[in-house]
Amino acid sequence: MSYDVIVIGGGPGGYVCAIKAAQLGLKTALVEKRDTFGGTCVNVGCIPSKALLHATEMLLEAEHSFDALGIEIGKPKANLGKLMAHKLNTVEQNTKGLVFLMKKNKIDTFRGTGRVLGEGKVAIAGEDGGTQEIEARNIVIATGSDVAGIPGVDVAFDEKVIVSSTGALEFGKVPGHLVVVGGGVIGLELGSVWARLGARVTVVEYLDTILGGMDGEVAKQFQRMLAKQGMTFRLGARVTGVAKAGKGAAVTFEPVKGGNAETIEADAVLVATGRKPFTEELGLAKAGVVLDERGRVRIDGRFQTSIPGIYAIGDVVAGPMLAHKAEEEGVAVAEIIAGKAGHVNYDVIPGVVYTSPEVASVGKTEEELKKAGVAYTAGKFPFTANGRARAMLQTEGFVKVLADKATDRVLGVHIVGFGAGEMIHEAAVLMEFGGSSEDLARTCHAHPTMSEAVKEAALAAFSRPIHM
Ligand code: NAI
Questions:
Q1: What is the CA radius of gyration of the chain?
Q2: CA of 44 to the centre of ligand 1 (A)
Q3: Peptide bond into 357 cis (omega under 30)
């Protein structure tokens, strides 16, 4: 069987690439080893976690806001079985939708583990032990990433007591004390889910801040909000051991700056210390595909690996490990293969943490601008001064707009607050078009909306806010 493109990996990078390639008239095959398409994101990542995050956020609202809003419902109670059913149903709707999209776009799909045999050839090992070979002018590697574990620490994941993000999506009962190793995105999102369901949650983080790499002011205020919700933080602490102890586990950590080690007991431990590119079983070394020093597939500006006609995208290459970044790369590489000008603007990739409130960001942080020696103006506006936020009892947080001091071009926007993950996109569109804080501030925003805080923060950067 011969194709124009074979895509290995059916996650957001791979399936989007396959659809775009098919739309551009290329004969396309997609190889996936799971039973369902969608990769980590749809099956055990973004989608199921959002089902749990939404449901438990509703619980939080019912517990803490309904009374003040004038709604009496008695004491709300979570039903873990039903929550999990909602999660599974959400995943299933998405995976079924992907089967439909593959058929609609006439993409040939192969179930099995793909291996690159060299230029133009892929072997697919099926579960039955059989292997078949298919050929194509172009191969796209989109095999994603896997749990990295803790560097230098032996962690025996059983996905019941010592879990990765996968196990943390399906605890059979709410852990009494959940210790989260790593105060990054996964740790805070899934830690939030179980905290809302009643677990005591302790986050142990190596850095002096949670959400390292996010804007420092945002991270600091966000940590205070999570602490108010009951999460405990041990920062500047390097975890050196995670081990089963009795029915639970013990987590040992030491201050990064030096000092005595400490061990805390937990009913469950979520290890969320990052992910690593997944290149196993692909036969890359034999095929001559070169990896970089961090095990990622090395690509050029056109996503091509060291072997002509073999491309790579998504978590398996450099850059943020985000589904939407992989999707953009999937579209771009399909366009390049079809002879068009595919391109990804890496300066404008939004990042969202789906906690309550949400944290969202696009472009540069203040720390990055300072480090690069860029002169900038910063405009800030708090949701406490926004009428809609008051009406919804969602006044926590703020918007910050960072613009180039000389040109006023917007370089970064950071939001912590209700609906931040939706609001961030007006900033992304503005930045994609090279807009200024004046452009943003002079764009009429509907009243009353949370988004008016974005306009006001832009006004604060370029002139003065009206409502403060
Ligand atoms: P992460 O890189 O976001 O955070 C890992 C944290 O673990 C870091 O803060 C690091 O300092 C800490 N750490 C590392 N070793 C440690 C040690 N020995 N002791 C204590 N702390 C230690 O990784 P995470 O949260 O596992 O997420 C993996 C990937 O998945 C990330 O690239 C993330 O962006 C992506 N993701 C994105 C989501 C979103 O966009 N909403 C949701 C979930 C995951």
A1: 23
A2: 16
A3: yes
**Is 447 among the residues known to form the active site?**
yes
The residue extents of the domains of the chain are 2-147+276-344, 162-273, 348-462
Query: What is the CATH code for 2-147+276-344?
Result: 3.50.50.60
pLDDT at position 286: 95
Pairing of the two strands 248-255 and 262-266:
antiparallel
Instruction: Name beta bridge partners: 380.
Output: 400
Report the residue among 186, 240, 422 best suited for mutation to probe ligand 1: largest number of ligand atoms under 8 A from its CB: 186
Average pLDDT, the chain: 97
For the segment 271-284, the average pLDDT, to the nearest whole number, is 97
Instruction: Please give all residues whose beta carbon lies within 6 A of any atom in ligand 1, as ranges.
Output: 150, 181-187, 189, 204-207, 212, 238-239, 272-275, 321-322, 351-354
Q: Which fold has domain 348-462?
A: Enolase-like; domain 1 (3.30.390)
Nearest-CA residue for atom 38 of ligand 1 = 185
- Per-residue burial over 110-149, b if 16 or more Cβ lie within 10 Å, else e, is bebbbbbbebbebbbeeeeeeeeebebebbbbbbbbebbb
What is the homologous superfamily of the domain 162-273 according to CATH? FAD/NAD(P)-binding domain (3.50.50.60)
- Name, in order, each residue with C-beta under 8 angstroms of 82's C-beta and a sequence gap of 6 or more: none
Confidence of residue 268 (pLDDT cuts 50, 70, 90): very high
Strands 310-312 and 200-204: unpaired
